[in-house]
Amino acid sequence: MYIPTTDGKNHINIYSKGWTELGRFLSNFTRCSIATEDGPFNSIEGYWYWLSTKNNSLRKLYGYNAKKVGKKLPRIFTLPQNEFEEKIRQACWTKLHTSPKMLFKFTQSTLPFTHYYIFNDKIIDGKTKWLLDMWTQFRTYIQNNYR
After folding, report:
1. Could you read off the pLDDT of 25-77 as tens digits, one per residue?
2. pLDDT digit string (tens) for 119-130?
3. If DSSP states are collapsed to H, E and C, what string results for 101-138?
4. How far apart are CA 120 and CA 140, in angstroms?
5. Burial class (CB in 10 A: 0-12, 13-18, 19+), 76
6. Which residue ranges form the domains of the chain, and what is each CATH number?
7. I need a surface site. Which of 36, 43, 107, 108 has the fewest CB within 10 A?
8. Smallest Cα–Cα separation from 135: which of 44, 64, 66, 9?
């Protein structure tokens, strides 16, 4: 099991309060202007909730606020899981390429990605295996194909 004091030493925790700059950047909460096929958003988290609510107020939101607002909005649209994941993948790929500095750090990284957070002094597994797999696949692809 990974713990916060080893974040950056034996893993990279993709978490808005993680100990590494890369882990914080990769978090869905991070404010980062991204252009998607559905228009502009200020975070992956805002896009995530927009996909099921189509509420345009989510376009400008980021951080925990995007999640808090998104969870309160009515779900009016449901994509099949594979389509939802593909839209998030495309948005994350775009996000990764918005910052040459972070793209370089990402490409140079070798530690496994994890996602956990601390709540009431307990480590809680973020249960996002498909997202962790996605980041690992992106990194492998970039390391093998970018010059």
Report:
1. 999 999 999 999 999 999 999 999 999 999 999 999 999 999 999 999 999 98
2. 888 898 888 899
3. HHHHHHHHCCCCEECEEEECCEEEECCCHHHHHHHHHH
4. 35
5. exposed
6. 4-145 (1.10.357.40)
7. 108
8. 44
Structure-block tokens of residue 30 = 């991070």
User: Has residue 1 got a pLDDT over 80?
Assistant: no
DSSP annotation of 33: -
Q: How many CA atoms lie within 13 A of 111 on its CB side?
A: 17
* Structure-block tokens of residue 57: 């107020």
The amino acid sitting at 47 is Y
